[in-house]
Amino acid sequence: MSALPAQPPLLRVCGLHVRIEGSHILQGVDLTVPASGVTALLGRNGVGKTTTVKAILGLVPRTGEIRLDGRDITASPTHEIIRSGIGYVPEDRGVFKALTVAENLRLAHRRGVEPRYGFVHELFPELKQRATQAAGTLSGGQQQMLATGRALLNDNRLLVVDEPTQGLAPRVVTEVAEAMARAAQEVPVLLVEQNLALVRRVAHRAVVVDAGRVVHTGPAADLLDDPGRTRELLGVAKGPAQRFAAPATQREDR
Ligand SMILES: Nc1ncnc2c1ncn2[C@@H]1O[C@H](COP(=O)(O)OP(=O)(O)OP(=O)(O)O)[C@@H](O)[C@H]1O
């Protein structure tokens, strides 16, 4: 995946600090997300990737500055940040397991915005076929599709997706990758991901976090084509396309 031409950033994060229960988790994160393509947020386990996206969404107390399209959203509560056009797919997927697929989608729909059912069903035909099925009975991959579909239903300006392939079997990872690439044609994506093959397939830019700070920013392909740098920043022992987390025992394999 080649780098996109320079453009003004859609999201700008400056000097983000998060302190939780005495731990200084984010120590001045600076990053930008351009107005198109996929920006991958990478890093070893526990370096602060999820905390970064939660801080952007106002889900954890933080200091610093966050601007969406130039507008300062730092002081806004989470529901306003979401309403300003950020679709969030959390690590735990956040679907309502007792509700059907159709009900999950309906609940995600923001008033005043035309729901994009056509786009969501084109991307994930199974969501249409399984409309009356309880979300809790879907496979891990299907739940990920539902969670992503919920975020894509509204005409968002940015999609923030946290580890969509965690625990999924390789075949399902491929499906998620296809969907993410297709979604990114419509809306820019900030993607937390540990599967480097998927990052290589979909990401234009890579932002690497280490110990609560951004330590590298650049075209994703440049980083992944440099095994030494990839190993240094991400701790990958072998090839750059290798998955560098989630041992097989954690997989749902469905
Ligand atoms: N609510 C919390 N209370 C205390 N410590 C926390 C809390 N949330 C996160 N942390 C700690 O902050 C650090 C960063 O966590 P975070 O989940 O952001 O990392 P990550 O890079 O997303 O990791 P992973 O790849 O394993 O998901 C970790 O050491 C974690 O234990």
From TrEMBL:
SUPFAM superfamilies, alphabetized: P-loop containing nucleoside triphosphate hydrolases
GO molecular function: ATP binding
Domain ABC transporter, residue spans: 11-236
Keywords: Amino-acid transport, ATP-binding, Nucleotide-binding, Transport
PROSITE patterns recorded: ABC_TRANSPORTER_2 (PS50893)
Source superkingdom: Bacteria
Entry keyword annotation includes NADP: no
UniProt KW ATP-binding keyword: yes
Family (UniProt): Belongs to the ABC transporter superfamily.
Protein known as: ABC transporter ATP-binding protein
Natural source organism: Salinactinospora qingdaonensis
